[in-house]
Structures are given as C-alpha cells and as structure tokens.
Amino acid sequence: MNRSLLDRQLLLRRSSLTVTQTLEHLVGMQAQVPEAAYIGLWTRLENFMHDDLAQMLLDRRAVRMALMRSTIHLTTEQDALRLRPLVQPVLDRDLYKNSTHAKGITGLDMGDVVAYGRALLEEAPRTIKEMGELMNHRWPEHPPSSLAYSLRNLLPLVQVPPRGIWGVGGQTRCTTATHWIGRSLNDNTTLEEMIMRYLEAFGPATTQDMQTWSGLTKLKEVVEGLRPNLLVYRDEDGQELFDVPDAPQPDSDTPAPPRFLPKYDNVLASHANRTRIIADEHRKLVMMKNGMKATFLLDGFVCGTWRIVPERSSATLVVEPFGKLTLEEKNALTEEGMKLLQFAAVEATVHDIQFASETEGRQTTA
Fold it and tell me: Which of 203, 261, 274, 345 could form a disulfide with 265 if both were Cys (CB 3.0 to 4.6 A apart)?
C-alpha cells in the first residue's frame, strides 16, 4: 500500500513528466499556501524550476481555485473546467451548512446574488473584502463576509496572478474561471471518470477514501457501477479496496528515498485511513486545527516536520523528527535538504541544516 501510493504520487523517483502532465495525473494539488505547490512539484519532478509553474499561471494554463473538499487546488485550466461542476455539491454543502455564513444569506435569491456577483468579478478581479463591500451595497442587511463567501462557493472563482507566483505574492484577487480561461465549464465529465483518475493517483482505496479526498458523499453507487472494471482487494480490517487494472504495485521492499513534502500535500489528506503513509500517533502532530505542517518521509513514511527560517542572507532548514534518527538517516536528509534549500531559498548565500534538539547544523556557503 505504501509503495503503491509513493509510486503513483511520483515519490519513489523523480519523474520526467511535464508540469501539465503531473497536475493532471495527480488530479490537482492542494495549494492554499502558494509556495506549497512549487515544493510539491520540485520533490516529484526532474529539473523543476519555479518559472515552469509561474509561467503556466501567467499564461492561464494553470489556475488556483476551490475544488475538492472545498479547498484551494492548483490544476490545469482544463481540469478546472472539468472538475468544478463535479464538486459543486461539496461547495454547496460548505455554504448552506456553514456555521458562520449560512445565516447571513438566509432569505436571499441566490440566483440574483450570483448574477450580480458575476458581473462585478468579470468587470475586474476583486479581493474578498472588495466583493463583500460591493455586494453589501446591493444587500445592506446581509453581512459582507457572507455575501462574498456565497460567491466563492457558488461561482467557479480563480485566484489571479500575481497571487501564486513564486517570490511575488500579492493580495488574493478573484474572477470567474470561465472569464479568465475564456471557455465554459465542462459538464460532460462524469464522476466515474474522476474516481478512476483518483485511483490512478491514490489507489488502492476504499469508497470512504474516495469521499475523503473529494468531499463528496454517497459514492457507493458510483463505485458499484465501476466494479466490473476494477480490481478488488481486502485490507486487514476486511474493507474492500478498489483499484484500476495494470496500476503500479511495487514490492514492499522497493527503496524509498527521503522526500520533503510541503504543507497540505494531498498525499496526506486523500484517504480516510492514512496509515499507509503516516502513523495515527503522528497524524495529530502534523494535522493541526489551523493547517497541515510540512513533513518529510523516511523509508516512505512521515517521520517528522520541517520549516525554513530565513535570516538576512542565510536560510536554515530546521528538521524536527518524531524520534531519534540514525546517522545514515541524517546524512540522507542533509543531502536532500541541501537540494531543497537551493530550490526554496535561492536568494540566500548561506544554507544551514539543523536537526531539532541539536546545536550543530551542516553549512555550505554559496
């Protein structure tokens, strides 16, 4: 299970796929932190450079928008148009059952809200605050934040550059995907197609896993319809695991190199049972109420967290393992960590690696 997941997630060896091919193979990458997708692609691809993704965003060949689980994902422009209609029930549920915003839109004609909001956003990309204030002029008795949140969930909004461009930043401004990309949403893609793609990237998986990844419910009927075309296994608890035929299933002793994963990497968020890559006792150390930490893998499993601390002309990679590391593991993490610093802290002239509770790091001067 572990090696199958790593292989399909391009984490056993770096791939020669293009960024477009990778984003479509992975069915998007969770990306509410703009830098995360760059790290996620770097750790999966050969010779990945920042501009490889940045230029796609600038050219509108890739976009960032709310999709699976109602979270921000980075996808190709084609997948944005294909996937958004399929996950609309997730965004509807998030809006109408939202403890903060559902009450604030009670009594509104949401058709009018969407039409008015679409016109504003296609006139010019706007921030959430700007959206709320402009909508509040039309509906003054309703909270601006709730009006803006309704547009975020009911319209297929994309976050436009410079947001999402490495090293640039900028406020989050949105417009509609159809206006930005210049094409209509694709209503022809089916849930069956989406589930098959999920299995290619995350399988074998249970129906509950599919629902955890997508945020959708009641997928059992969809999976039953696919059953004749799927392989079926049983896990140690007797649950059915579904998979696509001919999918890679490496031996359990296949070497798995150390890998640094960014915050919110989908490989940790796309199964109900995540023990195939992270132990339950470690999960609570990574998945916090306010987000998911960046992690590192040793022998295929999450063994700690990491962060980069910039200071003037230097950058320190702080590695925080869950347990004691062997010298061999430290050396392997140091080698990979230096590569990470060269990618993620390219402006720094001094790169340092420190392991938590240790005073000595390994240092190089560029």
Answer: 261
Burial 303-334 (b: 16+ CB within 10 A, else e): bbbbebeeeeebbbbbbbbbeebeeebbebbb
| Two tokens, residue 271 | 């199964």
Calpha distance 258→302 (Å, rounded): 10
What pLDDT score was predicted for residue 303? 98
**Hey, what amino acid is at 232?**
V
Q: What is the pLDDT of residues 129-179, one digit of tens each?
A: 999 999 999 999 999 999 999 999 999 999 999 999 999 978 999 999 999
Which strands, in side-by-side order, build the sheet including 314-321?
259-261, 295-298, 301-311, 314-321, 350-355, 361-365
| Amino acid at site 42 | W
**CA distance linking residue 147 with residue 104, whole number of Å:** 7
Task: Report the DSSP beta bridge partners of residue 231.
Answer: 243
pTM: 0.94
Closest of 263, 246, 225, 252 to residue 38, by C-alpha: 263
Pick out the chain residues at pLDDT < 50: 359-366
Rounded to whole angstroms, how far apart are CA atoms 13 and 215? 29
Query: Strand pairing partners for 306?
Result: 319
Query: 């040793």: which residue's tokens?
Result: 298
Write down the pLDDT at residue 335.
98
Q: Report the candidate in 67, 50, 54, 62 with the shortest Cα–Cα distance to residue 266.
A: 67
Token pair 């209509």 is found at 184
In this prediction, residue 198 carries a pLDDT of 98
β-partners of residue 167 are none
pLDDT of residue 363: 45
